[in-house]
Amino acid sequence: MIPSITALRALRQTLRQFGLSSIPTLHPTTTAAAAAFVAPIHQVRHYASILGDLRDIRTQHTNKKRKGRGPSSGKGKTSGRGHKGQGQRGGHGPPKNFEGGQTPQWIVNPEKGFKNPLMKHFSPLNLNLLQSWIDQGRIDPTKPITLKELHDSRAVHGIKDGVKLLARDCDKFNTAIDITVNKASRAAIARIEELGGKISTRFYTKEGIRFITRPHLFPDGHRLAGPTARQDIEYYRDPAHRGYLADTVKPGESPSLYWYKKHDVVKKKTEEEVTQQKKNKELRKQQAANRIF
């Protein structure tokens, strides 16, 4: 059965929506012409999805320009680099910081000063902020406060070498706490102990800080390292700083590594020793006066 012209036009429009080749646009006047409409329909390829019939658009792609292949290539002879010169010889031109051969400015006018490799960066924590966190319920004052509680409550951000407790608006702080930090000012220590609290300073390496603040990263545990620098050892041996090594200082010793005992102090000289030293001094003067040359 030969389909009608209306059916053929509807079929042609459907094929165009799917990007397929349509049937001829002849006006059937005879039976043979009508059969010509039907013949291409059986030759149409059917795809499970239109994704299988996607094709590149030629205008979206251009051929790579081949430089140095003669004038007809569009970039022949010098390949667009001009005639001779430094830019053409080197291929990529001079370095980015090249200043024409003269002494570079980073040598003529260098940066002044230096970067201290021993400097440590402590995150400051003031007593007024600590009291605000306690009032908001972000820190529990009934439990010991360590670097983990300060880190989890976001009281400090990005702990590098430790936390130092400072005494800004210390008169507003009115809670007895038990806190452990890396360093603390004398005013902060006095205020906490005045309220009946306890403060301790402890040494941590960067790996130790990561272990305290993020223990889940160390499934096998981690051994906290002690201080090795003389400055750190003396700081944490000093009871005035509430250092955790203050218990290792024996009676009569100083927190300094150059300590001495009270009984090792040199005794005062006796009167006989003082008299003998004077006689020896007078004798040396007489010998010097009687000397001829």
From TrEMBL:
Residues 124-199 form the Large ribosomal subunit protein uL15/eL18 domain. Keywords: Ribonucleoprotein, Ribosomal protein. One of its GO terms (cellular component) is mitochondrial large ribosomal subunit. It holds the Pfam family Ribosomal_L27A. GO terms for biological process: translation. It comes from the Eukaryota. The keyword Ribonucleoprotein applies. Residues 60-105, 271-293 are annotated as: Disordered. Residues 271-285 have a biased composition (Basic and acidic residues). HAMAP family: Ribosomal_uL15 (MF_01341). Belongs to the universal ribosomal protein uL15 family. This is YmL10.
